Amino acid sequence: HKDFLLTSMGEEATGASQMKVNLTKAEESLFDILLAVRDHFSLGTTLRVAGGWVRDKLLGRNSDDIDIAVDNMTGHEYAQRVNSYLESQHLETHRIGVIHANPE
Q1: DSSP SS3 for 83
Q2: What is the pTM of this model?
Q3: What residues have CB less than 8 Å from 17, skipping those under 6 apart?
Q4: pLDDT tens digit string along 78-89?
Q5: Which tens digits make up the pLDDT trace of 60-70?
Q6: Which CA distances in Å does 70 have to 13, 35, 76, 89?
Q7: Residues 6+ apart with CB under 8 A from 91
Q8: DSSP for 3-41, written as a single string
Q9: 33: closest CA among 71, 1, 79, 95?
C-alpha cells in the first residue's frame, strides 16, 4: 500500500491541513493512471479527489466510489483521454457514461 496525502483547504486563508491515508492497490493503480494521462498528454490538469471517498478514508473505511474533479476540461473529455492512454499502453479501455442531471 502507498500513502496518499490529503490536503484540505479550510475557510480561512491561513493554509491547508494535511493528512496521510493508506491506499489500496486498486486505488494506487487508478491514481497512477490518472496522473500518467495528465503527464502523457501534457494537460496541466489539477486532479482533485472529492466526495464520500475522502470522508471514508479519513474515517479509516474502504470505499469504491471515487469522484475525481478536473479543473481545465470536462470529466467526459478527461475520460476520453484516459481511454486513449490505456489503448496506447495496450490496456483495456472502458465505457464512458455521462450523467447530465442528478436524478434526485
Answers
A1: helix
A2: 0.81
A3: 7, 8, 10
A4: 999 999 999 999
A5: 888 989 999 99
A6: 22, 12, 10, 22
A7: none
A8: EEEEEEE-SSTT-EEEEEEEPPHHHHHHHHHHHHHHHHT
A9: 79
